[in-house]
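name: query_chain
kind: protein
chains: 1
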Amino acid sequence: MKIDTQGNRAALAAEAGVNTAVADRIRDYLSRTGLSVPDFARRINYSKSALGFFLAGTYEKVGGTGRNIQRAAAEFMDAHPIGAPAFILGELYETANVRLIRETFRKLLPRPVAYMLYAPPGSQKTFVLEHEVQRLNREQLADEGGARAFYVYARQGIRPRDLVRRVSIALGCRAGNDIDPMLQSIRFDYRANRVLLAVDEAQHLSIECFETLRELLDQPPHFSLLLAGSHDLKKKFDEFSATLEQWNSRIIDKVRLPGLDRAEARAIVEREIGELLAGRPARQAEAVIEKLIAAATTRDAFENGRAYINVRTLTNALNQVRAEAQTATPQPVPETTEAVA
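structure:
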């Protein structure tokens, strides 16, 4: 069937203003979220070519009205607003790690400063950071000029431009291919806010990435920066102290997370599988708790083999115990821990 492009063009002329406004909104949305045209088209159930024609103002090649694609795009953008806080699954236990990270957040908010947090693998600093970012934003949501916190994950081998893109997308700012326009957008959008930016797995950052981040601290709007990572992060700052001299002079403190102690680990086990243990003799229940904690205890390769409890290993084991209890016929709980050691 041949498309009457001339007739469609005449019909579309009546809604040109609305189509242009929606197209502008889509382009802005794509820029701020990092979605590509094909990504967005798939999410609103249109082909990438149809969306491309709509954005280019040549929708007459598709149809005589843009009302349907307008509606689909608006409904999706309204349902997925820019910068909407993510819901973090899982319960946050009040451990020493949590209290220390929360206290560090408080120190970062009053003025633009930088802190470093480091810990061995399995300390679940990522989980805590995401929770604390969400908690702060929820508390400050009603205050338009209040403090804001954002979380960014630094993958292995990330480049400065890609890092700034991730920061821009996390903040809901326009993301592009050039660093300077992205930084300008960040400065403008957050000129009235105190912002705390938490960069996780920061040991992956190159010297160039660190120096690019430093501009957010040194230049308006003067973000506070929290660098979180493994022992490799502190080691990098120690080994390249001369190259990172400017950074070292700005980091207020380099804090090692204390990790989970036995009392905290025991409390988590009792909270998570207490009902499963309640029907067992006290001696048997105690043996299960000790076995789970022992299985989650490992050696820290960076600190002379210091033993610590790997939170991830412990919580994974507890999840496995619960899953097996739900699907298996009743049996002694200790036998369910063998597979999770």
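note: The two ends are 65 Å apart (CA to CA).
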